[in-house]
Amino acid sequence: MLKASVIGATGYAGVELCRILLTHPQANIHRLSSVSFTGKAISEVYPALRGLCDERLVSEDEAIDGADVVFASLPAGLSEPIARKCLQAGALFIDLGADFRLHDPDTYESWYQKKYEDPELHGQAVYALPELFREEIEGARLIGNPGCYPTSVALGLAPALKGGLIGSEDLIIDAKSGATGAGRGLSQTTHFCECNEGFAPYKVACHRHTPEIEQTLSILAGEPAAVTFVPHLLPVSRGIVSTIYAKLKGGASLPEVRQRYLDFYESAPFVRVLPEGEVSNLRNVRCSNYCDISLHLDAHTGRLIVVSAIDNMVKGAAGQAVQNMNIALGLDETAGLLFVPPAI
Ligand SMILES: NC(=O)C1=CN([C@@H]2O[C@H](COP(=O)(O)OP(=O)(O)OC[C@H]3O[C@@H](n4cnc5c(N)ncnc54)[C@H](OP(=O)(O)O)[C@@H]3O)[C@@H](O)[C@H]2O)C=CC1
Ligand SMILES: CC(=O)N[C@@H](CCC(=O)OP(=O)(O)O)C(=O)O
């Protein structure tokens, strides 16, 4: 059995990793780390885990020691030195944050106000969206797990962009996320009374996932992509729905577009291209590693409308991280991830 440690296990994405690893057939939880709760059991922080995972929280160094795989689920800007230690210790390192996602150091610096300190390390990092970059992930030792919104957008657009069905300029992304996307820390915007029964966009056309989205879409299109990305805070706990608008080129019909999507995702176990007439709904992917994609055509404007739904903490974070571990280490991609979304 692989020994897997989680650094930042007390955060929302970290505790989702614990939940998934607990039933993984080829990995065991080795150690869990925290700064604020060191010495306590994870089940004291999250009582849902009582009797299932009563592991004591330890320091970062103790978590790395003896691990085969280390997941870091920390705020941006903290992962470089941890990655270095893991590689030196011979462990696979998977970062759930943003520190190894952007290829261009200047872009990272301008959006995250921090420099890449260790360029050699970044040279080894793989941006790991399995459905798009599976071959690069196989055998990788340092993985940058994609952001939640960028995952939903890239999966939603990849077949159309790669197949030249749409242009890469003037893409409009209207995305909504549940409040767990903001993490466990308290803030006024995610405070119950502030977000319940309210609904609004935030960081309009200036969210830090914009360059990550454009990076992937540019690779897919083979030319620079430009997006208008507007995220919204949805007053639910979990789930992301991205509704994406793109001008169709060449007049493909909806059944033809859908067939391209089905072909593209033929060997992708976690992407479900919905039948014509159905609409993706975050309810159907909650607590699962699935991405549901529905396709629609606005005959009036000739726009393709793609609706892509994921669970932000599973396919958007912990589930995708475990999928990446499986691929990197040559395990079955679906190991530990075939849990069924609750129907209601
Ligand atoms: N939530 C989501 O849906 C998604 C999150 N992510 C990314 O995953 C990462 C974690 O996010 P999330 O779980 O939501 O965040 P949380 O705020 O819920 O958790 C943050 C974790 O980081 C630890 N931490 C905070 N500050 C420090 C510090 N200075 N040094 C060491 N540890 C620290 C906390 O540990 P403690 O307080 O116990 O010391 C806690 O375990 C982020 O990079 C986020 O962007 C990515 C995709 C989706
Ligand atoms: C609802 C909500 O606030 N969502 C978060 C999601 C970002 C996130 O998790 O981003 P990184 O993984 O790139 O840090 C946000 O918009 O900042």
From TrEMBL:
GO terms for cellular component: cytoplasm. Belongs to the NAGSA dehydrogenase family. Type 1 subfamily. Its EC number is 1.2.1.38. Residues 3-140 form the Semialdehyde dehydrogenase NAD-binding domain. The keyword Nucleotide-binding does not apply. Pathway: Amino-acid biosynthesis; L-arginine biosynthesis; N(2)-acetyl-L-ornithine from L-glutamate: step 3/4. This is N-acetyl-gamma-glutamyl-phosphate reductase. It comes from the Bacteria. Catalyzes the NADPH-dependent reduction of N-acetyl-5-glutamyl phosphate to yield N-acetyl-L-glutamate 5-semialdehyde. One of its GO terms (biological process) is L-arginine biosynthetic process. It is an enzyme of class 1 (oxidoreductase). Keywords: Amino-acid biosynthesis, Arginine biosynthesis, Cytoplasm, NADP, Oxidoreductase. The active site is at 148. It is found in: Cytoplasm. It catalyses: N-acetyl-L-glutamate 5-semialdehyde + phosphate + NADP(+) = N-acetyl-L-glutamyl 5-phosphate + NADPH + H(+). Pfam families: Semialdhyde_dh, Semialdhyde_dhC_1. GO terms for molecular function: N-acetyl-gamma-glutamyl-phosphate reductase activity; NAD binding; NADP+ binding. InterPro entries: AGPR (IPR050085), AGPR_AS (IPR023013), AGPR_dimerisation_dom (IPR058924), AGPR_type-1 (IPR000706), NAD(P)-bd_dom_sf (IPR036291), Semialdehyde_DH_NAD-bd (IPR000534).
